[in-house]
Amino acid sequence: QVQLVESGGGLVQAGGSLRLSCAASGRTFSWYAMGWFRQAAGKEREFVGAIGRSGGSTRYADSVKGRFTISRDNAKNLVYLQMNSLKPEDTAVYYCAGDSNGFLTLRTARDEYEIWGQGAQVTVSS
Question: Is the torsion defined by CA of 38, 62, 35, 72 positive or negative?
Answer without folding.
Answer: negative
